[in-house]
Write a structure and sequence with these properties.
The structure holds 2 protein chains of 2 kinds. By secondary structure, chain A is α+β, with helices and mostly antiparallel strands. Chain A contains 16 helices and 21 strands. Chain A is globular. By secondary structure, chain B is of the alpha+beta class. Chain B contains 4 helices and 6 strands. In chain B, a hairpin with a 3-residue loop joins strand 1 and strand 2. In chain B, helix 1 runs antiparallel to helix 2. Classes of the chains: A alpha+beta, B alpha+beta. Chains A and B meet through strand 4, helix 6, strand 19, strand 20 and helix 16 of A and strand 3, strand 4, helix 3 and helix 4 of B.
Chain lengths: ~500, ~160
């Protein structure tokens, strides 16, 4: 390895570069035997019956030997070292990789021992950082004594302390409030029922504007099955007289709607009955649920951003939902409900607790006009082509025209609803015509920012700003689409200044 | 890139060669597909095969010779006091800014071809979601290590 000398030269390594425990080669080979046998099973079945047993055994031995050689090569090319400020792991037989994990970033050191490892007195050490991946640094395997040495060395360091004392959403004076039993947000039984009706309304919108919703990228649930069912009914109805067919369709729709209402109500009451959000100073405790009472703690320093969303009807009636994106949250997707069904002032109250504040849509700036052009091309274009193609096959495709009109309407309105504001330390982005989401992101929480310009965007003088935060879902972040190019450059050029 | 906040450094020339080498397989595939299509057209349909072959040949040459150059030229990077700026992309261009303080860990990687032409790849891992990993290829080994040490220094001084 040509550059291996620089490691010692530039950083005085404590104890130099180390290899994994030699026995880990044996463990790895034994571990790979079951899968190797499974892979060789077809060959064994094909030749095993005819061939000599000795030939079969020799073949198996050869496979094991080759596997051992490969493992040994990988082992001999894997080293790790503790330098003055980082763990350095070098690996790779052909392609080489040198990973540097600064001590400051080591959040957790895990030691695990599987049965086979116990036999050899080995342990796997896994280093975790705040990185998006799962295992940022894995040492498989070292001796138990070495594992404990590593843990002592890495845990005692500044990393754990730094992480524990990581600043709150807005760094600075952290005044610990006295635990307060009065909830900052709670929902009465009536409100939960009303909220349940709106959970149904999503289904209703989905049945009506399914395709539109799909294009809007707000897939909250699986309504594909529902659509299939409706399709099947309509297909069967074609051979019937029109009035009967229409009646059947109406009946099916009514049943679907009723099921939607009941399912939404039941689900919501089960989940959100007795909803209470309690301020415990530095963290929020959320309790909810009818049969299973679930409690969750949301640590304020771990809150990455807040998202307020509402549907078109909820918005008219003045209701919205507040969620927080939490790093390493208890929830699977990191999005935690704070106030599922709340009035604007209640949302603002909880936001204040997070040291965030939002600006009304009027105070936000709309993206460039070209956004409408691009939205039309991207959302209406494919739908129009699809309808046209369907029209060639069946005249029923005309039924899709209202959908097309809706899509055009939504595209025309897209710019009105896609707004942003870039404050000194807060970024607010609002997007979505039917289902609208407003993200409020503290600038220090932005991990990476990118300016993306497609061919068309460059022709139109537009740019998309991609804002990446921790703990989010893969789609639907606080990205700003199609703002003026110069604004985009300005934004990414001085986001952190 | 006139509006870019900083002037960018190009990648090492060696990376261009690496990209040409990497384009060899797709170019061969295009050429092979062209030959197959030409033979099939001649045999089954009785069409002349040479226009297809010519088109495929031109396309293969473009994939092999022109496209890697364009991609190479689109790359650029710059290190400011506390950020790394990376630009890439031909049809859709990206300009990415990573604050060094957000970097969780860093890889310096080298595939055999990259090693042969004296370049290395810097991979920055952040805590983000969809663009959490920022890759900067085509650095000299020394530059890659310099950049890594700059990031490392930030990790030491700044608590996350």
């Amino acid at each position: 390895m040509s550059g291996s000398g620089t490691l010692e030269a530039t950083h005085a390594a404590e104890g130099g570069r180390r290899r994994l425990h030699p026995a880990s080669v044996a463990v790895a080979v034994v571990r790979s035997v079951p899968s190797a046998l499974l892979a060789a099973l077809p060959a064994l079945l094909a030749f095993g019956a005819r061939a000599d047993l000795r030939v079969v055994l020799a073949g198996a031995a050869a496979v094991v030997l080759v596997a051992a050689a490969v493992r040994w090569l990988a082992w001999s090319r894997f080293t790790y070292a503790l330098t003055t400020d980082a763990v350095v792991i070098e690996s790779g037989v052909l392609g080489r990789n040198r990973r540097t994990i600064p001590y400051q970033r080591v959040a957790d050191v895990g030691i695990s021992r599987r049965p086979l490892q116990r036999l050899f007195g080995l342990a796997t050490v896994s280093l975790e950082t705040g990185g998006a991946g799962a295992d940022e640094g894995v040492l498989d395997s070292v001796s138990v004594a070495e594992a404990q040495r590593l843990r002592r060395r890495l845990r005692g360091g500044p990393a754990a302390a730094a992480r524990d004392a990581s600043p709150a959403v807005e760094a600075g004076s952290e005044t610990v409030k006295a635990p307060d039993a009065v909830p900052v947000f709670a929902m009465s039984g009536r409100r939960v029922l009303l909220w349940g009706l709106f959970n149904f309304s999503l289904v209703w919108i989905a049945v009506g504007f399914g395709a539109l919703q799909y294009l809007d990228g707000v897939l909250g649930f699986d309504y594909g099955l529902l659509q299939d069912a409706v399709m099947a009914r309509t297909a069967a109805a074609r051979s019937l007289p029109f009035s009967v067919a229409a009646g059947l369709v109406a009946l099916t729709l009514a049943v679907v709607l009723l099921v939607g209402v009941v399912a939404g109500l039941v689900r919501t009451v089960l989940r959100d009955h007795g909803y209470r959000l309690i301020d415990e100073g530095g963290r929020l405790r959320r309790a909810r649920g009818l049969l299973t009472r679930s409690e969750a703690i949301i640590s304020l320093p771990r809150v990455q951003l807040a998202a307020v969303d509402d549907g078109v009807i909820r918005r008219r009636l003045g209701w919205s939902r507040l969620r927080a994106q939490v790093l390493g949250g208890e929830g699977a997707d990191g999005r935690q409900d704070l106030a599922p069904f709340a009035r604007a002032e209640e949302v603002d109250g909880v936001l204040r607790l997070l040291r965030l504040q939002r600006v009304p849509p009027g105070g936000l700036e709309a993206v460039a006009r070209g956004h409408v052009v691009r939205t039309l091309l991207r959302r209406v274009g494919p739908l129009a082509l699809l309808t046209l193609a369907a029209a060639l096959a069946t005249p029923f495709a005309v039924l899709a025209t209202p959908l097309l009109v809706l899509a055009v309407g939504s595209a025309l309105l897209s710019r009105r609803h896609h707004r942003f504001r870039f404050g000194s330390d807060l970024l607010q982005v609002q997007r979505g015509v039917l289902n609208r989401t407003t993200w409020i992101v503290p600038v220090p929480r932005v991990q990476v920012v990118s300016l993306r310009r497609s061919w068309l965007q460059r022709r139109l003088g537009l740019a998309t700003v991609l804002i990446d935060t921790a703990g989010g879902s893969r789609f639907g972040g606080p990205d700003i689409e199609d703002l003026r190019e110069d604004q985009g450059w300005k934004l990414i050029g001085r986001l952190w200044r | 890139m006139s509006l870019a906040p900083v002037t960018l450094n190009p990648l090492e020339l060696g990376q261009r060669t690496v990209m040409h080498v990497g384009a060899a397989v797709p170019a061969l595939a295009v050429a092979a597909a062209g030959v197959a299509a030409a033979v099939a057209a001649q045999d089954r349909l009785g069409w002349p095969g040479w226009p297809i072959m010519l088109t495929a040949g031109a396309l293969a040459l473009w994939v092999l010779l022109v496209s890697p150059r364009r991609r190479w030229a689109a790359w650029g990077w710059a290190l400011t006091d506390d950020e790394l700026h990376v630009a890439h992309g031909v049809w859709t261009t990206y300009y990415t800014v990573v604050p060094l303080a957000r970097v969780q860990h860093i890889d310096v990687a080298q595939q055999p071809v990259e090693r042969a032409f004296g370049v290395a790849r810097l991979v920055l891992h952040t805590a983000g979601t969809s663009h959490a990993v920022v890759v900067l290829p085509g650095l000299s080994r020394a530059t890659a290590e310099e950049l890594r040490d700059a990031v490392r220094a930030h990790a030491r001084t700044e608590t996350w």
